TrEMBL record:
<feature type="transmembrane region" description="Helical">
    <location>
        <begin position="99"/>
        <end position="120"/>
    </location>
</feature>
<feature type="transmembrane region" description="Helical">
    <location>
        <begin position="316"/>
        <end position="335"/>
    </location>
</feature>
<feature type="transmembrane region" description="Helical">
    <location>
        <begin position="846"/>
        <end position="871"/>
    </location>
</feature>
<feature type="transmembrane region" description="Helical">
    <location>
        <begin position="208"/>
        <end position="228"/>
    </location>
</feature>
<feature type="transmembrane region" description="Helical">
    <location>
        <begin position="171"/>
        <end position="196"/>
    </location>
</feature>
<feature type="signal peptide">
    <location>
        <begin position="1"/>
        <end position="17"/>
    </location>
</feature>
<feature type="coiled-coil region">
    <location>
        <begin position="579"/>
        <end position="617"/>
    </location>
</feature>
<feature type="transmembrane region" description="Helical">
    <location>
        <begin position="260"/>
        <end position="288"/>
    </location>
</feature>
<protein>
    <recommendedName>
        <fullName>ABC transporter permease</fullName>
    </recommendedName>
</protein>
<keyword id="KW-0732">Signal</keyword>
<keyword id="KW-1133">Transmembrane helix</keyword>
<feature type="transmembrane region" description="Helical">
    <location>
        <begin position="347"/>
        <end position="369"/>
    </location>
</feature>
<keyword id="KW-0812">Transmembrane</keyword>
<keyword id="KW-0175">Coiled coil</keyword>
<keyword id="KW-0472">Membrane</keyword>
<feature type="transmembrane region" description="Helical">
    <location>
        <begin position="402"/>
        <end position="423"/>
    </location>
</feature>
<feature type="transmembrane region" description="Helical">
    <location>
        <begin position="141"/>
        <end position="159"/>
    </location>
</feature>
Amino acid sequence: MSALSLFLLLAWAQAGGEPAAAADPAASPSPSQGASAESPDTSAPAAEAGANPVAAAAGGALPVVQPTALLAEELANWQKWALLIGDPIRTVPVWWGPILSWVKIVSLAGLLGWVGAWVMASLRGRRRARVTIGGARPLDAALLLAILIGIGCVFVRQAQQSEQLPQVDVAGVALASLVGMLCLGVGAAWLETVLWSGILRERRIGDVLVLVGMHLALLVAVGIALSMPSGAMPYLGARLGFPPDATLLTPEGELTPSGVVAIVLIGVQMALTLMGFVVFLRIALLVLGEVSAIRPRRLYAMGKFSWVESFRKTRIPWAVLAIFLLILAFTHWFLQPPDSQRQAELSRLYVGTLMLLSSVLLTVMVAVLTPITLPNDIRFQTIFTVVTKPVRRLEIIWGRMLGFMGVVTALVLALGGISLLYLERNIGGRIEQLRQEIAEAREAGLDNQAGLLEAQLDQLQTRRSARLPVGGSLTFVDSLGEPRIKGIDVGQELEIRSFVEGATQAEASWLFGPMIPHPVDRLFPNRPGERYPMLSMPVPVGLLLHEGTIEDLANDIYTVAYERAELEARKQGAEPSELSRLNAEVSRLEEQEQGLLREYEALVARYSDLVQQAEAAGDAPEAARLREQAEALRSPDVPVQMTFTVYRTTKGRPGEPVYASIRVVHPFSAEAPMYPGSRENSPLLIDPLARRFGGNNPLIPELVHSDTFDVKEYYTNKWAFPASMLVGSQGYLTIQVQCLSPTQYLGMAEGDLFLVASQGSFLANYMKGLAGIWLQAMVLTAIGVWAGTFLSWPVALLITVFFFAAGEIFFPILNQLATGQMIGGGPFESMIRMVSHSNQMTELDATLGVILAKSLDAIVVPIMSLLIFVVPNFSAMDLSNLVADGFAIQWATLGANILLALSYAVPFSIAAYFILKNREVAA
């Protein structure tokens, strides 16, 4: 098996002899960066900075996107779908895109497992060879020699790329690459021989059919690769990692040797994926047959056994609960805000610490408990009492997982309940204390002190909520009035935020809408290349405008007006029969619009009467009651929350804050166009009622609403604008922010400004955050049970801890490796840079050690990049930051995390089933 793995690594290294080009976002393992939903060949383009004189008017270098329209012109639809299905990393951002990616990844893992299992079985069942070379079979000796020569070829290719060795070409291909390909052929011949001999010897008809199907899939992949038109080779070569200057076609349109290599790589990728589908079908049929025989009573019995064993034999859950209470008793000694002016961070400190403590304790418990029990049962042969009963192997695996997850569920509920009581005692107690201090300050006439305490109280209550944020797409305008993708870089190490200069034209603009262009396409609408996918960031008008209010009724009028305007546009060029139907529909909508206008006027009149009655009422309670009735007829102001930072170039005036202005622009206004860089400033939407009302529209009193505010650092700045700004907006809106204080800079990121659609319960949100920890524990339980089926408990424990650390801490590094964005080379080259104190951007001298390190990286990095498809993304299931910051965990987010956890846990449990089924457990 080790020889097979090394052989596959050499194959990858030989295929990647050319230096890799910039990573293609469409080739990312993340399904959200794949092709568009309209066509399987449309990919999210990779932006590159290029010099262009037109860019000067747009505030910087014009992003140039690699043209991909050639693919749509050259490939037939069946070829596009074949590439989508056969490419292991290609996907589409639709509901079935992640499912397809999951099937492809599981299929490739199943292919590797099936081949590895049969290779090991074949080697174990071999008969003594008649002819040997040094005690080894001739084909085994040839494989070993091919591996050694292949490693040497990798070293030679690295030396040739470093210009330390001359390159010898044969028919336009490097001789080292040809020798490496010959070594690959030897490895393929060895693999074929071993598989056929082992499967035929065992006479497994199903696996014989699988092997035949794999060869048919290979032929299909070869046919598809050969059918690819030569005109599409530049695009396909870019997706394979060929550098932009690689010559894949001759001027006559013929394939060069590099083009032939590209075709071969396409065929290899597609062949592996299609062969994986064959194995996946075989595995699915076996698993479905096993699942159909599962009985709930046996699952319950196995789960109860694991539950009882956890509490009575290991007692680890009791230890977790005791440690949690012990740490909690002294936590308040160490959790203090940075200073007295930043009491708002107290809630985040407590919530973040409690969720981190719960996560660590549960993770340690699962990592220790799950990989120990099954190996010990096998070691002491106590599992013999189970396997001799009518219990299926899959019931043993899933039953144990159910029992362990029952323990985790009980602990999650216990730790969650204790944490909520602890938070109520500390944070709730601090809130009550602040209220008392505010009342005392008011009685003493200390208004300034009371204002500061009220701000701290408001921030604490904000963090102890579940806000549903609605974000927009952020762009900037510099001090000269030119649009830019980013603001000013003030030299901070983290480039999360960009800054706008104070007392200038510089501003930050957030655009909301159900269908808006990418910021690059907004600022550079005439640039060459493919467009980025459209963004959907609408304002939830239905949530913010309360039903039955004046603003909601006005918005209904605009809904009917938009529908009527659409029908009016369809009347142009319509057939007579269709025209009569459209006229009738338009007449109906006009009547409906008139009826809504009468209801609107009546509601406005009632509101005015209630306000007048409240002003004329002499009794204060009666006036308050009337005002409350009047306010119930209007939707509340739309809340906006901001978290900005300030970069000070001068000390400024002592005691004076930094001021900023904020402006909300309705989509009917031309002051916030869709394309800021264009000369024609047209509104986002055309008012369908402009002719009816002229310049005095009672439904929308103002198209631009502006205000100023002082920026509170370390706090959430709160503001609100009238709900009438949403009438007729169809979810579109623009919010612009400027810094008013001279010599100061205001820093912001896209997520620093958002509308608050709703406020939820902190209790429910906290339990959703604990559900994320529960999902992490479920995946880790599957990994621990899987490792315990074939490893001793110390090794299984280390494997489980490795998976969790890799998925929780090192997953971003694995993502950089998989996407080719790792700067400074692989692990061996990075080690040289650390020892020699060389930065990541400096090119190392081509010494023998550097060439050797790069050669080792060429073998190791491919397998490390494949780990991103195997190591679970535990960090994606961690929702504690949302809870600590006071943001709501939406059910859609939780549902996506549940599917993500199942996509990891199910394959690991199925792998554990096959391992346990094919090993001796009670010898």
